[in-house]
């Protein structure tokens, strides 16, 4: 039985407050409706007290503790704001500014920078202190994310995210004192480091020191080219996150407004990646049944929709290559069927068909050219990937008033989807969708209405294990998100191998980003578990509201197999919809 934490009574700015024991002064103040400024603290990370902005006064103490790293004690009397604290905080900001370039107008975080916001709030208008800028050129080598070292404020959030949440260790802190800076480990190029392009460093950075590689200009150029037929697809999680850039609450589902907006940006056809998520399930669920029921391949089967996880696996878990599903990601599946099936139906020249994807993920940029299989149509299957943030910038550049967009439908047939397709945006969603269809493939029946929601695979725990019954046979599954958690799951499988036992799981889903794609590195800034939950709730509501909730019941999916692909795992499907994996080095030099 879990014992509830004892409650502590204290005062913040004279107002009584009661919070559970172990609550920091920073969090207690937030519960009291008081915002204490900070730059180094992020909801996903434990405190380091690095920036010093969150100092407060405690009655009876001479020192000013840092609120993020100091636990509230009984009967404490805290002052969070007064003239002296404001002066000290302004001085700290001026010190940070003395090592930061005045390049706001050309920065990728202009207007959405935590440092810029605080400088404005504290009225810092002049460079009172002598400038000391790092003369280090930006690192553009990665192709997915860009590091501008001069804009680093050494808060450490990116380094700790990369090391603790992702277990990638591509970033570190170099040097000491005023020369301290963030850099790829060993001060090498990011492209030569273990980086998996997930973009979580960018999502957690408070400034423009790490941003996505912006390709909006390339898309604008294509849209202006009269020779090109431009189509676009949107990922499941984009629909419940994009609205945050326009003042909507997290989780607001704006699918049909996004369709209308994309048409007005100039795209000739608007598709939905949910369609190809259903297509992915047909291939992946059949692959699972082949292995689980017929013994054609090793277990556990491991999902492969996440390119950052794919990159991480090829570098760090090469002994599991044979366990990886060969099904391409939904992004790549839609790209190839758009340039083959759709182009053929519409009489288009695939060479002039320019396919853009809107993804929550910076690693999707890397995926476009990961292997030769990404050119299965005879051309690059997806030409450009934009993050959710990049799409928001395009909309703002266009002059369109997003809040006034009408609701429209996607283009058929690559825009029809089931509820299972939309689940891909949340951790556990691929597993849930696959199990729904796997149950049908094994039993010939759909799950009962009260069993369609497979709740054990949902949630934000780093690792979730479940046992699902299919016709009296137990299917053991595991779901992991955040790369630091995946080793716990795979080590259990390795241990069983060494003992000569059956694997502890039959099916494993891994997503690199905490929360899955709804928490992707290309999503709107300001991520936290509360935001993740609200975005996930938006996807679950979309699934619940769909007339069809099983991938195999999507009529457009049935049609594409009948007219074009043949059957799942058939010769044509294998050639167009599947890929292979290869060992890679973590460090390239």
Features:
single chain, alpha/beta, Ubiquitin-like (UB roll), Alpha-Beta Plaits, Rossmann fold, four-stranded mixed beta sheet, four-stranded parallel beta sheet
Describe this structure as you would to a colleague:
- By secondary structure, the protein is of the alpha/beta class.
- It folds into 3 domains: 7-81, Ubiquitin-like (UB roll) (Roll); 107-212, Alpha-Beta Plaits (2-Layer Sandwich), CATH 3.30.70; 217-577, 3-Layer(aba) Sandwich (Rossmann fold), CATH 3.40.50.1780.
- Helix content is 34%, strand content 13%.
- It has 18 helices and 16 strands.
- It has a 4-stranded mixed β-sheet with strand order 2-1-4-3, covered by helices on one side.
- A hairpin with a 2-residue loop joins β14 (463-470) and β15.
- α8 packs across α14.
- It is globular and about 75 Å long.
- The model has no long low-confidence stretch (mean pLDDT 95).
